[in-house]
Every structure is written in structure tokens, then in C-alpha cells.
Amino acid sequence: MTSTAQIVRYGELKPCRTAFIDAHTPGSDQKENFTIIGGGVSESPDQYVHIADPIGFNIGAAGQPPKCRNSLHSHRTAEVFFVAKGRWRFFWGRWGDAGEVVLQEGDIFNIPTGIFRGFENIGTDYGMIMAVLGGDDAGGGVIWAPQVITDAAEHGLVLSEKGKLYDTKKGQKLPEGVRPMALLTQQELAAFPEPTTLDVVPHYVARYWDMMALADKQPARVIGENAMLRDKPGFEIDFLTRGSIPDAPYKVEVNEVVMPVRGHWHADVDGDAYTLAPGDTCLIKPGAHLRLAPSMTGESSLYRIRATKDPAGPTWKP
């Protein structure tokens, strides 16, 4: 019988260093990308998928050393990040100068769909951000700012019109009849919004300590119906602490993922006991009975993500 719980341990994550078109571009060439649940949006056949099950959304992660950045891109569905480790700067706009915000460990950012965005590790050690992407196919891939594609070609990577990477440094080339990914036209680029920091941060960013305060007695609704952040992007996210975890087991009604932020947690799934640590990802299938509890005293918090029937597509409204 298939287990109703599947766990991907932080220490067992398998990185891909050639996942995207900027993998050779100086400043972005030390990135590590992780596809934890779902197919993700990697452009490389080298990407390892830990749990391939379609659950209505995708879970991934990006790990980067200090001063390493992820190039400007956009998605057709939601992209939500929370910082697992380190200090990160997120920036957005056609050239990355329309707005920015700095996030610390535990902070969460529901990046508006339909804008170019990038991020960099501005901490002093290797950092990790965990990602939730809307939809089973995550919108069909990544839309790159034109300069990213041009820069990548100068360093040996070419993206086909079908979203597959070819490395000319390895002697690879586009197959006959396959064209390179077309650059966005000026008319197409004009359709991408340029919201300011004041447009975005108050409505799309939640700080860890604010959520800790709100989740003192009941779960803090972060994304979803009547939540802290705008949009209902095909999944909902709650933030739970020691004081807001249900005492009794509850039946899982839809695909559910729990991801500890601080502290160690006990998870009892249909009588099977697991211990979860920060950075671990636990998928619980519908029909299971789940009970969560911190395993020791001290600060404890986690994110819980559930699939919803809301459209996973574009949600940004000026």
C-alpha cells in the first residue's frame, strides 16, 4: 500500500547546477536548484525530481552562495518564496530596478505574477529559499528578460523554442528545424507591469515575527481566503506555531505539505511517527489522519500548504 506521507529531508536534497539558461553567466553560475514535489520549471534534463506526483502545486528550492543572483524572469502562475536560511534581496521590473525588498529567515513573499523578478543572496553564508509554484505544470515554464537570453548565449547556453537547454561548450546544438527561444518584442515587454516597492511590499510580503504574533492562538492565514497577503493562486498557506497547532488528529482533505521553519516537529500520520526538522518537506495525501506537535520546548513554527480549486494563473492587479 502506498504511504500517505512522503518526506524529503533537507540533508538529502539533490541539486541541479545546470537547471536554467543563466547557469554559465557570471554572477549566476553557482546556483543550485531543487525540484522537491512536482515537475517544476527546470530547463535541464539533469534536474532531479524527488516526488513527481502532481498535487495541484509544485515545491522547489534555490540554494546560492553569497553574492550569487537569479536572473530576471517571469512566471504565468504564482511563485511564493520563504527564506529557510540566510538573507535575501528580491528585486523586480524590466531591468530589476522598479522595486526591491530584503527578506530574513522565515519571511514569505508572494511575488505578483506577470512581473520580471530576480533574487540574490546578500548574506554571509550559503542561503536557501523554498518555493511554491502554482499549478501542476507551473505555467509551462519560465519567461526570461531578453538580456538574460542574450547574455547566456555569450557563455554557451542556448534555449530552444520548446524550453530545452543546449550547451555549446559541450558540443550541443539545436536540432535541425528547432529554433532558439524568441526574444520578447518591445510590444510584449510593455505589457509587463513595473510596480513600485510601495505597490508590492505591503500586500505581498509577510514578516516572520508578525506571523509568530498572529499565530499565537490560531493558525495565521498567509495566502488564501481572508489572508494576510493578496491573491488566491491555486493553493493556500497557513503559518502555525506551538500555540496554534490542533491538539487532536485531523483528517487531511486535500494534498497537504508541511515545512518546518523553526524547531523540530513530531508528525503522526495514520499511526506512523516521523520527526521533521527545518528544511524538510512532508507531503500528506488526502484521507490520512495527521497530528502535529513540537518535539521539544522552545520556538516552533511551520508552513502548511494546501491545494485549492482557485485558478493558478495570473493574479496581479495594479
TrEMBL record:
Coiled coil: none annotated. It comes from the Bacteria. It holds the Pfam family Cupin_2. Residues 66-129 form the Cupin type-2 domain. This is Cupin domain protein. It comes from Boseongicola aestuarii.
